[in-house]
Amino acid sequence: MSTTAVPPPGAPPAGDRAEAEIAALLQRSNQLGADRRVTNYAGGNTSCKVADVDPVTGAPRTLLAVKGSGGDLGTLRREGLAFLDADRLRLLDARWTPEADDDDMVRLVECCRCPDRPGAAPSIDTAMHGLLDAPHVDHLHPDAVIAFATAADGEALVRRCFGNEVGWVPWQRPGFALGRSIAELARRSPSLRGVVLGGHGLTTWGDTSDAARDASLEVIRRCERFIAEHGRPDPFGAAVAAGAPLEPARRRAIAAALAPLVRGLCSTDRRMVGHFCDDDAVLEFLSHEAATRLVPLGTSCPDHFLRTKVRPLLLDLPPGAPFEAQVERLRELHAQYRDDYAAYYARHATPDTPPMRGADPAIVLLPGIGMWSFGPDKQTARVAGEFYVNAINVMRGAEALSRYLPIDDAEKFGIEYWALEEAKLRRLPPPRRLAGRVALVTGAGSGIGLATARALAAEGAAIVAADLDAEAAARTAAELGGDDRAVALGADVSDENAVDAAVESACLAFGGVDLVVNNAGLSVSAPLTETTAEQWDLQYGVMARGSFLVSRAAARAMIAQGLGGDIVYVVSKNALVAGPDNVAYGSAKASQAHQVRLLAAELGRHGIRVNGVNPDGVVRGSGIFAGGWGARRAAIYGVPEEELGRYYASRTLLGIEVLPEHVAAAVLALCGGELPVTTGVLVPVDSGIPAAFPR
Ligand SMILES: NC(=O)c1ccc[n+]([C@@H]2O[C@H](COP(=O)([O-])OP(=O)(O)OC[C@H]3O[C@@H](n4cnc5c(N)ncnc54)[C@H](O)[C@@H]3O)[C@@H](O)[C@H]2O)c1
Ligand SMILES: [Zn+2]
């Protein structure tokens, strides 16, 4: 069939038809991408070709709309499409020679873009879409199909399952040459609706968008059915008693306890954020005898191993082993992993290979407990874990039918260190100041804590927003973007168990903690003679004791991580200045101020800096002021309550009203990386009050 056909008389103008086809393409992409069995996150691409007109020459052309580089099919929008002239792409095909350099071809494919239709950059799979004649093409990474693609006798299995309907293209690195192989096979065998790409995935096509989608879904369903009907019932072999999953609460407690160590090890080359997964698929895999044989084989689909690294680290101890033994063994296995990775690099690198990118594992498997996955941010870490679950599904299917045989290390290395992949990494914007850091902010539901959580998140930190008011904490976490950016905890900082549990939750959510802001606080103003013991205990409980408990629990995790850290106290001018009616609050703040110095002195050898900020007169946004303190202070100073912020400002050297954002900016200045040799200081954030100058 010709895709440059002149439209039949009475057909809508070319532009309208193109728009309709593009709309259908987006709808099909979203539908396919919504199901993780159809393709992994951000994996695969879809396209359509439609008769169109060159706006300059008025000549007919075939417009290729194809999902561009990056992004996910499930949420693909028009901006995510690349637009190319498919006729030009075919001219390029005529110039291709077996000696052609893949990277040069990518640059030439770029030259086939339609300048009148700006869009996303074309992906490496563009040639495959453009060179196939069919108007609609899907390229997907479905677990059930990759099971066939990585089975030792995959080609024979595809023939048995599909006869002449689906072909087989042996493993070939993605790129122009792979696109040509697929297109040639499709031309030679008109009965084909698609091909399984050895070691990699699936490409299907159709005359209409619906036909392409139906072909994709049908091939996937038939692979799933074939595995269910013809596969062994025990693809991972016998269950291993020692790897049996622990109870959920117990395995999460161990995962959290091991987290700082594991994260620290996996951050040897670069600071990583962690994601924990104890889904049934992971626990089942790890509790069967095949795991020890399959894990070292690593993943196969290029999308998978780019995120999971060539292979995971597998702890070879039962979950019930003593904690110290697990720690010891993880250290040994990590050192061995790094040696093995360096050897893999040395074995395959050529003088042109980019430098080694880091030798730490991205996936750590703990039998009976679950899986830790790591990435430079939470989303990347989570997706790496999801991809390993995809890989487990692939291995289960391949082992059910045959034997799992991923592409070999030399090919994996070629992709991992491909110049194009390197270029993609170089194009990434530089990481933000706090990228990869996990920050626990107490009292994050309101005022200064909320402003601080916002500021730290804006610089890339993953946030654990803790507050006595669980709903307020949840509002903060939701505002910051939800689970990949921030998690909420309801916790009373004066409660020892609650604080330990909060740090444990932080470890489970992100793998550890690097930065703590002791901000939770409250204030009760009363003259000495009217201050009750309860008021005293409450303020000492939250501020003196609370920040001690939080610092202690966090420092334990930081020391286990071995990555240094920051503890910042939100103290107060009142730690230094003796104001009226303030004995409990002011002296509790003085305790915090001295904790800063004591802990700076004690924790410096672990690379942990401890500093504080001394705000004053932050009326706007502050729950403390709204809750009665403001009214009493205003009465003491003889000003209307709504004038209090300005009144405080009028007493300062700079005369500027202090806002929560000013305090947040000071916290960020202390822990954002610009003051690496500063510890034990208190920074006033008070618009200038001589009596509060620290000395
Ligand atoms: N507002 C100011 O002018 C000012 C000046 C100096 C110091 N500070 C200090 O700044 C910090 C924040 O104050 P703010 O003005 O933003 O007040 P805020 O009331 O707006 O916020 C304090 C938060 O801490 C939480 N909190 C209270 N007790 C807690 C507990 N036991 N466990 C966990 N969370 C708890 C509250 O629920 C609230 O969300 C406090 O430590 C305060 O002493 C404030
Ligand atoms: Zn692919």
Notes on the protein architecture:
The chain has 695 residues and is of the alpha/beta class. It folds into three domains: 14-230, L-fuculose-1-phosphate Aldolase (3-Layer(aba) Sandwich); 241-427, L-fuculose-1-phosphate Aldolase (3-Layer(aba) Sandwich); 438-616 and 659-692, NAD(P)-binding Rossmann-like Domain (Rossmann fold, 3-Layer(aba) Sandwich). Strands 3-2-1-4-7-6-5 form a seven-stranded mixed beta sheet, sandwiched between helices. The radius of gyration is 30 Å and the shape is elongated. The N and C termini lie far apart (84 Å). Residues 1-7 have low confidence and may be disordered. The structure holds nicotinamide-adenine-dinucleotide (NAD) and zinc ion. Zinc ion binds next to loops.
